[in-house]
C-alpha cells in the first residue's frame, strides 16, 4: 500500500493506535506491529519482511517478527553479535546494506543472509525514551531493493511507530506497577492474618507475633510470606492462602 506523509499522520497513526489498544501486552503489540510494518512497506514485486528488536533497561531483549523467515534473519544477526539493525539501534542512525554479498563489515551475517536469499537489509532506529532502544529490521530478497524514497518512507514509518511503542511501554510499566502493588498487598494481608493467628495462640502483642514469624522465616531460610501462609493454612485447612482485592 502506498501512502504519503499525510497518510502516515492520519490513517497509519490511527491503525497503530488501534494496535496498542487491542494488544494484551508489549509482546503482542510488537508481533502485530511487525506484521503491519511488513504489509505497509512492501510494494508490488518487492515484498518486505520485518523483525523488531527492543532493548529495555534491566530486561531481556524483546523480539518479534512478521514471519518465521524474518525471525530467522534476526536470529542470524543476533548470533553474529552485530549487524546493520543492531548498529542502527546502538547508534540511533539508519543503516542500509544494499547487497550483503558486497558487505565487508559483517562477513558472518552477510554469508548467512545471502544463503537465506535476503540480499538487502535496512535497519531503522525507533526513537524511544530513557535507556530503551529499538529498531525495525527490514529484509528484501533482491539487491538494492530499497530506494532512497523507500528509506525515507521507512524512517517516517518508524517515527510514527515510536509514538505508539512509547505508549505501549508506558501502559506496560503501569501494568507492572499494578501487579507489583497487588502482590505486595496480598503478601501483607496474609502476613497480617498470620500475625492474628500467632497472637491468639500465644496471647501476645502484634509486635511479638510478627517477630516470631520473622524468626521462623530466618531459621527456615524461607520467605516471610510463605511462613505466614503456612500458619494461616494450618487454621483454615486450605493448602493455598490468597487475599482478594477488587480492582
In total, how many domains does the architecture comprise?
2
CATH superfamily annotation of the largest domain: GAF domain
Q: Total number of β-strand segments?
A: 5
User: Could you say what the CATH topology of the largest domain is called?
Assistant: Beta-Lactamase
Main sheet?
5 strands, antiparallel
Strand composition percent? 5-15%
CATH first level of the largest domain: which class? Alpha Beta
Q: Quick check: average pLDDT?
A: 83
Which residues sit in consecutive blocks of at least 5 with pLDDT less than 50?
A: none
Shape: elongated
Helix content: 55-70%
Q: Give the ordered list of helices and strands.
A: HHEEHHEHEEHHH
Q: So, CATH architecture of the largest domain?
A: 2-Layer Sandwich
SS-derived structural category: alpha+beta
Helical run tally: 8
Roughly how many Å is the radius of gyration?
26 Å
Distance N to C terminus = 42 Å
Strand order within the widest sheet?
2-1-5-4-3
Describe the structure.
- This protein has helices at 5-22, 26-41, 68-80, 84-91, 107-116, 148-202, 206-220, 224-236; strands at residues 49-55, 62-65, 95-97, 120-126, 133-140.
- The chain has a 5-stranded antiparallel beta sheet with strand order 2-1-5-4-3, sandwiched between helices.
- The protein folds into 2 domains: 5-175, Beta-Lactamase (2-Layer Sandwich); 177-236, Winged helix-like DNA-binding domain superfamily/Winged helix DNA-binding domain (Arc Repressor Mutant, subunit A, Orthogonal Bundle), CATH 1.10.10.
- A hairpin with a 6-residue loop joins β4 (120-126) and β5 (133-140).
- It contains 8 helices and 5 strands; from the N terminus they run ααββααβαββααα.
- α1 (5-22) runs antiparallel to α2 (26-41), α1 (5-22) runs parallel beside α6 and α7 packs across α8 (224-236).
- The two termini are 42 Å apart.
- It is an alpha+beta fold and 247 residues long.
Amino acid at each position: 500500500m502506498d501512502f504519503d506523509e499525510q497518510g502516515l499522520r492520519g490513517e497509519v497513526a490511527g491503525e497503530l493506535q488501534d494496535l496498542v489498544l487491542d494488544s494484551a501486552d508489549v509482546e503482542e503489540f510488537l508481533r502485530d506491529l511487525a506484521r503491519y510494518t511488513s504489509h505497509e512497506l512492501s510494494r508490488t514485486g518487492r515484498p518486505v519482511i520485518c523483525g523488531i528488536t527492543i532493548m529495555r533497561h534491566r530486561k531481556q531483549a524483546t523480539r518479534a517478527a512478521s514471519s518465521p523467515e524474518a525471525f530467522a534473519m534476526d536470529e542470524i544477526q543476533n548470533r553474529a553479535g552485530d549487524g546493520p539493525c543492531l548498529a542502527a539501534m546502538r547508534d540511533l542512525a539508519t543503516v542500509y546494506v544494499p547487497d550483503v554479498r558486497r558487505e565487508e563489515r559483517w562477513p558472518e551475517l552477510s554469508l548467512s543472509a545471502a544463503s537465506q536469499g535476503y540480499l538487502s537489509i535496512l535497519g531503522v532506529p525507533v526513537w524511544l525514551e530513557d535507556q530503551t532502544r529499538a529498531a525495525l529490521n527490514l529484509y528484501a530478497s533482491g539487491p538494492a531493493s530499497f530506494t532512497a524514497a523507500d528509506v525515507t518512507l521507512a524512517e517516517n514509518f518508524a517515527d510514527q511507530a515510536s509514538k505508539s511503542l512509547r505508549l505501549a511501554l508506558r501502559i506496560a510499566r503501569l501494568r507492572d506497577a499494578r501487579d507489583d502493588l497487588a502482590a505486595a498487598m496480598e503478601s501483607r494481608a496474609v502476613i497480617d492474618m498470620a500475625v492474628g493467628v500467632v497472637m491468639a495462640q500465644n496471647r501476645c502483642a502484634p509486635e511479638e507475633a510478627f517477630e516470631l514469624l520473622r524468626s521462623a522465616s530466618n531459621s527456615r531460610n524461607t520467605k516471610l510470606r510463605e511462613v505466614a501462609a503456612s500458619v494461616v493454612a494450618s487454621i483454615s485447612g486450605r493448602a493455598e492462602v490468597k487475599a482478594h482485592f477488587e480492582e
